[in-house]
Design a protein that fits this description.
The chain is mostly helical. It folds into two domains: 196 residues, Growth Hormone, Chain: A (Up-down Bundle), CATH 1.20.1250; 185 residues, Growth Hormone, Chain: A (Up-down Bundle). The two termini are 30 Å apart.
Length: 403
C-alpha cells in the first residue's frame, strides 16, 4: 500500500509503461534508502559497541559523506554515458556486500569500510534515481514525481532506523548485519528482474563541455546556491535545535516531539507541493518557503517553551520540506541536453560539501559568539536564498522544460 500510494500518478501521463517505470524507480528508491539508513544506524551503534569513542564516531559519520563529495559528479557523468542500471547494481551491491565485512570480521576497521561502501551506494543510487525520475516524467508530472521521490526518502528515514533498532534488540549486532543485507536484496532483485527496462545512456564520451560550462549554464548556478543554502539550514536545524531545546530545559521526550514536528510538516507539505506549484511556480513557492523558514529561525532564540518551539519546528519543516524536490526538478529542467545526470550529481556534490563543512563552521561560531547567532545567521542565509529564488520568479527563469 505504501509503495502504491507513493507511486500513484494520474492518468494524465500518456504512456502506461512510463507510469509503471516511475513507480518502479520510486519503489526502488524506497527500498534502497531504507536498507542504507538502517545500515548506517547499525554501523554507528556497532562502532560504539566495539569501543569506538566520539572521535571514531565522528570519523565514521564523515565516511558516509566523503564518497558522495568525491564521486557524485563523476557518477552523474557515468549515468549520462552508460545509463543507470549498472551504477545502481554497483551502488546497491556495494552497500549490501559491505555489511558482510563486520559480520565475518567484527572490528572498527570493517565497520569503517562498510561505512565507505554505504557512501558509495548513496552516491551512485541517489544520482541515478533522481536522474531517472526526471527522464521518465512528462513535464506536467515532474513536480509530482519528484515530490513522491522525496516522500520515499522521508519514509525510509523513519522506517530504516526503526528496523535497525528492533533488529539489534532481538538479534544482536552480528546478525543484524544480515537483516540489512536482506533489505538490500529487495532492490537488487528488482534490478535483476526489471533493470533492463531502464533508459540507457548515450554511449558517448563527450558531454558537451567542461564542468565550468555546466555550472555556467542558465539557471544551474542559481540552483546550486539555493540547494546549498537549504542543505545548511536543514543540517543546522538537526544539529542545533536539540542543543537549544536542551539548554531551554526541555526533557528528552519533549525534544523528540519538537524534532518530530519538523519531520511531520516536511512530509505533509510534499503531498500538496505539486498543487502549490501548479497554482504558482517553482520559484515563487521556493521564495515563500525560504521566507517562512527564515522567519521561524529568526524567532527561535526568543522562544523557550516546548509548545512554541514545536510551532517553530513545524514552520521550518514547512519551508525546508519544499526545497529538496523543487531544487531537484529545477536542476533537471535547467541541465544542458545529455548532461542531466551530471547536473544532478553536481547538485549532490555541492550539498554534501556543505554537509561536511557547514556544521563545523557554525559550531565554531556558536562557541565564540553564542548559540543564538547560529539561528540568526541561518535566517539571513535563508533570506538570501529567497532573494535568489525571487529573482528567478520575476525573470521567469524556470529553465528549459524537457519533454
Amino acid at each position: 500500500m505504501l509503495v502504491h500510494s507513493l507511486g500513484e500518478f494520474s492518468s494524465a501521463v500518456p504512456c502506461p509503461l512510463k507510469v509503471l517505470s516511475v513507480r518502479f524507480v520510486i519503489a526502488l528508491a524506497l527500498f534502497n534508502m531504507t536498507s542504507v539508513r538502517a545500515g548506517r544506524v547499525l554501523l554507528t551503534l556497532y562502532a560504539i559497541k566495539l569501543g569506538g569513542g566520539p572521535l571514531a564516531i565522528g570519523m565514521l559519520a564523515a565516511s558516509f559523506s566523503i564518497i558522495p563529495v568525491l564521486f557524485s559528479w563523476v557518477g552523474g557523468r557515468w549515468a549520462d554515458r552508460f545509463g543507470s542500471r549498472w551504477l545502481l547494481f554497483i551502488g546497491v551491491g556495494g552497500s549490501s556486500g559491505g555489511m558482510l565485512l563486520p559480520f565475518f570480521w567484527p572490528s572498527l576497521t570493517t565497520v569503517f569500510l562498510a561505512g565507505l561502501l554505504s557512501g558509495l551506494s548513496m552516491t551512485f543510487c541517489n544520482v541515478s534515481l533522481q536522474n531517472l525520475v526526471g527522464q521518465m516524467s512528462s513535464a506536467d508530472q515532474r513536480s509530482k514525481n519528484f515530490s513522491n521521490y522525496t516522500l520515499a526518502g522521508a519514509v525510509s528515514s523513519f522506517v530504516g532506523p526503526m528496523i535497525a533498532g528492533f533488529a539489534i534488540d532481538h538479534l544482536g549486532y552480528h546478525y543484524s548485519c544480515l537483516t540489512v543485507l536482506a533489505l538490500a536484496s529487495i532492490p537488487l532483485g528488482m534490478l535483476v528482474i526489471h533493470g533492463s527496462t531502464l533508459p540507457r545512456g548515450t554511449g558517448k564520451s563527450e558531454h558537451g563541455g567542461t564542468l565550468w560550462h555546466l555550472i555556467a549554464a542558465p539557471g544551474v548556478g542559481r540552483v546550486l546556491i539555493v540547494s546549498s543554502i537549504a542543505q545548511v539550514a536543514n543540517d543546522l536545524f538537526q544539529f542545533y535545535m536539540p542543543v537549544y531545546a536542551h539548554d531551554a530545559g526541555l526533557s528528552p521526550s519533549a525534544i523528540g516531539v519538537v524534532l518530530a514536528m519538523y519531520a511531520a510538516s516536511s512530509f505533509v507539505v510534499r503531498f500538496v507541493l505539486p498543487k502549490l506549484i501548479a497554482l504558482s511556480s517553482e520559484d515563487k513557492v521556493l521564495t515563500v518557503a525560504f521566507a517562512i523558514a527564515g522567519a521561524a529561525f529568526l524567532l527561535v532564540p526568543f522562544v523557550k517553551g516546548g509548545v512554541l518551539l514545536g510551532v517553530m519546528s513545524f514552520l521550518i519543516g514547512l519551508g525546508m520540506g519544499c526545497t529538496s524536490p523543487i531544487t531537484m526538478m529545477k536542476m533537471y529542467a535547467n541541465s544542458p541536453p545529455g548532461r542531466s545526470g551530471e547536473a544532478m550529481g553536481l547538485r549532490l556534490t555541492a550539498d554534501n560539501l556543505t554537509r561536511l563543512f557547514g556544521p563545523v563552521l557554525f559550531g565554531m561560531m556558536a562557541a565564540s559568539v553564542g548559540l543564538a547567532s547560529v539561528f540568526w545567521l541561518n535566517a539571513v542565509m535563508l533570506g538570501s536564498g529567497g532573494l535568489f529564488a525571487r529573482t528567478g520568479a520575476r525573470t521567469g527563469a524556470r529553465g528549459p522544460r524537457k519533454p
